[in-house]
């Protein structure tokens, strides 16, 4: 299994072919939707099927923002802003709270540590759908239903356990001696953390932040029950605007899909190295 | 000090997870109906649970969910392992391949639902179009309308979405694999299959359990996809606990009944997570001892 083993040429071609097929299966379904976003509706409905777009168009995107005279625009810009505000705010707060928790688990011995750790993990186990029913009742009574604030608080609870888990793993990898040495040299515990341990854990925190952002950005089950209007609807919930009782506006939906994917795609590709090490080392060790 | 650091996290979890769970625990003993708020205080004892025991639809959904999660987790693990082994063999352009491989991970589950609803559409879908143009079919195949095919389509979509997570984690494991034991085994005359079975696979097991734990935390993500692709149909043939629950709670307004279902579904999720978490802890100790 090592790379040092010498393969026969036909084996090498078999591996390349296998990789090629796998990559096609992994990318084509997504690319097909992206392609549809730039096509007129006639081409989508054409029979026999039109495989390569004959007329490229930006009309589907114009339609989303109300720039087309054919159809009234949807409040997509507002959904986008809601999504961005909710995801970014809850990510930042979740990383700070989760980091504090992860640090506590990595550095201190205290009573009930193992139980508390398992309790956090189990809280993540509760499916969003199971939470959305009781949260709906409580949030309605508190008057924070259909507000960004209400959803930010919910996403905090969704993201904190995973952030604790990842940061715990990262802080464990940083030797305790470093911060102890700094404290002997006259730093306070806080200074030692901020100047020594925090910079070393930065790549771990970055990957925790990405996971938190992607989770909030993509979440649907909770958002669909706790948001009602353009005041707080997020992009995934907004996708439902394209479905009527029996039909779906495929080109409009595809255009909006592209708007949802782009931020996630750009972010993930920029930091994919951190993402991999975050998933593995934070989790395993 | 540690308690102080953990306090904010504990408060958030109590407020957003534990309190709602207590509320839903209470409502599962009432006849709470969304349209009649006063029924929140109409205590009916175990009636919801009793009805649930005799509710055939619910038990079908329960069994289907269990089978769905088992099938997808195992297939994703096997396919992810295969993909990781393949990519690990490629020496040129591996980073690009890894990046491409992560493409499905960025898709929101609800987007995956729409995407495959579109692709499996019987009149304009990619799959049927391809089959038509290749001359393999003359009648459209009703991918999402036929019960068996709809289940297949949903499992396909779920596997498409999540195999990468397994592949990435297992690839990281393969890259961390120590070379010495493998060379030693080869000198001793082991064939590649034996090396894989006795050295590579045991070393990879912690990574497998990590992946299983992470994914089992997210099994409920299947809700979003199924909600969009079939919404439990045709005739309840793809109904999972979670789609049945929201239908009961919001469309039929029977919140009390839905929350009783919620409790049973939470038990199922906890079962999967505790199972893998225990395996993971054991594997972690093994890793700690081995290194």
How does this structure look, described?
- The complex is a heterodimer of chains A (285) and B (291).
- Chain A is mainly alpha-helical and 285 residues long.
- Chain A has 14 helices and no strands.
- In chain A, helix 1 crosses helix 13 and helix 10 packs antiparallel against helix 13.
- Chain A is globular and about 75 Å long.
- Chain A starts with 8 loop residues before the first helix and ends with a helix.
- The mean pLDDT of chain A is 85.
- By secondary structure, chain B is an all-alpha fold.
- Chain B contains twelve helices and no strands.
- The mean pLDDT of chain B is 86.
- Chains A and B meet through helix 1, helix 4, helix 5, helix 6 and helix 7 of A and helix 1, helix 3, helix 4, helix 5 and helix 6 of B.
- Chain A: It is a multi-pass membrane protein.
- Chain A: It holds the Pfam family BPD_transp_1.
- Chain A: Part of the ABC transporter complex MalEFGK involved in maltose/maltodextrin import. Probably responsible for the translocation of the substrate across the membrane.
- Chain A: One of its GO terms (biological process) is transmembrane transport.
- Chain A: One of its GO terms (cellular component) is plasma membrane.
């Amino acid at each position: 299994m090592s790379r040092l083993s010498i393969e026969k040429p036909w084996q090498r071609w078999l591996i390349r072919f296998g990789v090629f097929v796998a990559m096609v299966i992994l990318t084509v379904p997504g690319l097909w939707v992206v392609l549809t976003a730039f096509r007129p509706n006639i081409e989508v409905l054409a029979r026999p099927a039109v495989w390569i777009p004959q007329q490229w168009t930006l009309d589907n995107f114009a339609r989303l923002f109300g720039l087309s005279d054919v159809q009234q625009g949807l409040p997509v810009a507002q959904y986008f802003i809601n999504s961005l505000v909710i995801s970014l705010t809850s990510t930042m707060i979740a990383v700070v709270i989760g980091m504090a928790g992860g640090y506590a688990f990595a550095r201190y011995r205290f009573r009930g540590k193992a139980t508390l750790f398992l309790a956090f993990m189990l809280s993540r186990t509760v499916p969003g759908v199971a939470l959305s029913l009781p949260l709906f009742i409580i949030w309605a009574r508190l008057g924070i239903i259909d507000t960004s604030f209400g959803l930010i608080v919910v996403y905090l609870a969704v993201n904190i356990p995973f952030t604790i888990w990842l940061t715990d793993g990262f802080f464990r990898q940083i030797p305790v001696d470093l911060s102890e040495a700094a404290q002997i040299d006259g730093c306070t515990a806080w200074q030692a953390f901020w100047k020594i341990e925090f910079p070393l854990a930065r790549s771990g925190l970055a990957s925790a932040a990405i996971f938190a952002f992607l989770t909030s950005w993509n979440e649907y089950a909770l958002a669909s029950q706790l948001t009602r209007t353009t005041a707080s609807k997020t992009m995934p919930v907004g996708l439902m605007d394209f479905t009527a009782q029996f039909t779906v506006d495929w080109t409009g939906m595809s255009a909006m899909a592209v708007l949802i994917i782009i931020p996630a795609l750009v972010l993930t590709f920029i930091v994919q190295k951190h993402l991999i090490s975050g998933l593995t080392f934070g989790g395993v060790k | 000090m540690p308690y102080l650091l953990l306090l904010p996290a504990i408060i958030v979890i109590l407020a957003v997870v534990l309190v709602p769970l207590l509320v839903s625990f209470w409502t599962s003993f009432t006849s709470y109906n969304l349209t009649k708020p006063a029924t929140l205080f109409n205590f009916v004892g175990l009636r919801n649970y009793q009805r649930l025991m005799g509710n055939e639809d619910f038990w079908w959904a329960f069994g289907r969910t269990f089978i769905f999660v088992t099938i997808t987790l195992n297939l994703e693990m096997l396919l992810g392992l295969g993909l990781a082994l393949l990519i690990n063999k490629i020496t040129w352009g591996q980073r690009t391949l890894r990046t491409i491989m992560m493409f499905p991970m960025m898709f929101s589950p609800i987007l995956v639902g729409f995407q495959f609803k579109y692709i499996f559409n019987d009149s304009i879908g990619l799959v049927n179009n391809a089959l038509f143009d290749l001359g393999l079919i003359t009648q459209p195949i009703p991918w999402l309308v036929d019960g068996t095919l709809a289940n297949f389509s949903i499992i396909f979509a779920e596997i498409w979405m999540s195999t990468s997570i397994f592949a990435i984690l297992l690839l990281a494991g393969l890259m961390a694999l120590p070379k010495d034991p493998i060379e030693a085994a080869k000198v001793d005359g082991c064939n590649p299959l034996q090396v894989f079975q006795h050295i590579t696979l045991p070393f990879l097991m912690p990574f497998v359990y990590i992946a299983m734990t992470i994914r089992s935390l997210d099994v409920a993500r299947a809700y979003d996809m199924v909600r969009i692709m079939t919404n439990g149909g045709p005739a309840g043939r793809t109904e999972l606990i979670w789609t049945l629950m929201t239908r009961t709670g919001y469309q039929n307004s029977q919140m009390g009944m839905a929350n009783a279902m919620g409790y049973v579904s939470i038990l199922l999720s906890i079962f999967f997570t505790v199972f893998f978490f225990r395996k993971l802890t054991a594997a972690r100790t093994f890793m700690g001892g081995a290194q």
